[in-house]
Amino acid sequence: MTAIATPPLAASAGIAADLEAVAGRLRRVTVVVGGRGQGAGAGIVWRPDGLVVTNAHVARGAVGVTLADGRRLRATLVGRDPGRDLAALALPVRDLEAAEVDDGTDLRVGQLVVAVGHPFGLAGALSVGVLHRGPTGREDPDGGWLVADLRLAPGNSGGPLADERGRVLGVNAMIHGGLALAVPSAAVQRFLRRAGLVAP
């Protein structure tokens, strides 16, 4: 009988510590959009000056946003694209920790990805999976979807899909066929440029 090799304990502990650190960083830049309970969605602090990105189906009009430190603020809707399921919110603060955003040019099928959101009202829950497909650009001029094999649920919408270093690759939007679909960060940047919220 052939023995099954197992990773050294130190290596396993190192991976767990790395994931814990990534989860901590992502939780600090992930907000609750809407109510505090199971009807809440998620959002990403995109810039320190209070710009938050979420899904259009999560944000409608002026909404309440709860920061990771517990502060609850009234946000103003400053951009919305229902076709791409994106929305931009402005918060009346200028000193927030913002996400590190990656443009996704080096995505690899099979790479580890993580998501943070508030499924069923559980704030800051972490999901881990692998990337199935990156944006191809063929079926959608805005870059298609990121497709990942990880568990999402109501409350994850609008939250970050990130790599193993915690860099945001996209905005989680929906589940299709048991797989998570996210809007790529490059498409988010184009949306923000069209809305006049970032420099062209």
> How far from one another are the termini?
62 Å
Kindly state the percentage of residues in helix.
10-25%
CATH superfamily assignment of the largest domain?
Trypsin-like serine proteases
Could you spell the SSE succession in H and E letters?
HEEEEEEEEEEEEH
* Structure classification: alpha+beta
- How many DSSP helices? 2
CATH topology assignment of the largest domain: Thrombin, subunit H
> How do the strands line up in the largest sheet?
1-2-3-6-5-4
Strand coverage percent: 35-45%
User: Over the alpha carbons, how many angstroms does the gyration radius reach?
Assistant: 17 Å
Please report the total strand number as a whole number: 12
Topology, element by element:
Elements: H1 9-28, E1 30-33, E2 41-45, E3 51-54, E4 63-66, E5 72-81, E6 86-90, E7 112-117, E8 125-133, E9 146-149, E10 160-163, E11 168-176, E12 179-184, H2 185-194
Description:
This protein has two helices and twelve strands, in the order H-E-E-E-E-E-E-E-E-E-E-E-E-H. It has 200 residues and is of the alpha+beta class. The protein folds into two domains: 28-98, Trypsin-like serine proteases (Thrombin, subunit H, Beta Barrel), CATH 2.40.10.10; 112-190, Thrombin, subunit H (Beta Barrel). The model has no long low-confidence stretch (mean pLDDT 88).
